[in-house]
Amino acid sequence: MPEEDWPLEFAAAYYTAIHDSREAPWYGLYAWVLANVLFLKLCGHSTTQTTVTYAQYPLRFGIDTEGSDDLPLSSDDEDDVTILDEGRTGNPRTSIPPSMQTATVDHIMGSASSPVTPERLPVRRASGAPSPPDSYIRLGDQLANYNEPETPPPPRPSTAPRNVIKRLTRIPDFVQLLHTRLRPHEFTKHALMLVEIKKRRLQRDDDSLMLDFVGVLKQTQLQAMHAFLSDPLVDTVGVIVAIGECWQYVEYDRCKVLPPGKKLDFRPESQQTYSDGTSQSPEPVQQIYRVVKEVDMHYDEMTGYHVIGTPGSDMALLAVREQMLQMAQKYP
Q1: What is the DSSP letter of 162?
Q2: Mean pLDDT, consecutive 10-residue segments, the chain of 332 residues?
Q3: Spatial CA neighbour of 266 closest among 100, 78, 77, 98
Q4: Closest by CA position to 241, among listed 227, 255, 251, 256
């Protein structure tokens, strides 16, 4: 739609992100697109099905995180793998028990994902706090008498369960789940879409933008793998990769990501070896995503991708919504 016809919320989120050099402001813009374009009343007037957008959602509980969503996560620039190994010390990212280094798809896959049931959460009770003046006085005394320690304090021991993979791959920025109500307090869940967002380059050229997308698509391939491992009923998952205002939609199919008998190597890339005994792959990693023609045909000729807020992007988003409708209809 023309810029003067943009909804107020969209315009506010767009210009906030454009004038900021960080990644986080783009979350607001794409969250608006998910809620108001792609998944707005996707299930119509159904009383048993709905879609919900989750931010930073672990696709496999106990694999992508340590078991608590409140734990701090590594930044996007850090390694993908974090391993805790019983009886070892040092960097947990390089301490991997042999039994966890490789596995097959058939070994990892289990039964269908269990329904989601609500749990009672512990109630946090506020304790009495001293009045502000006394707090400030004591804090001032502590700062006045503070001396820098000669040696840093020893690190606190981890309270995490042993032999647990904390984070096998980066967690998607957004995950769109389809929920179906079985009983009043019981729902199933199936992943429809993953969204991965990166900040825009201040000085962008076509080659650097293409390389950025290639790098992020390697990341989303691992995320799609976890979506399939967590739910045997999911055969296809859609993925939006956004770098600033430029975005691309692709789909991953289970049969390509997890062919039967495929070995999954959970070690850091620097520790993986190949058939010739070297630590580097003899050929580039094959990209196994699928481009959807009905979406891709609306790309921007200047960038080769979709540019949010342009008429071509609007048409592409409607085509993505149609893909989501078709995926949702596969689940009863």
Answers
A1: S
A2: 90 96 95 97 95 92 50 41 38 43 52 44 45 50 56 60 48 96 96 96 75 91 93 96 96 92 61 48 62 95 91 97 96 86
A3: 100
A4: 251
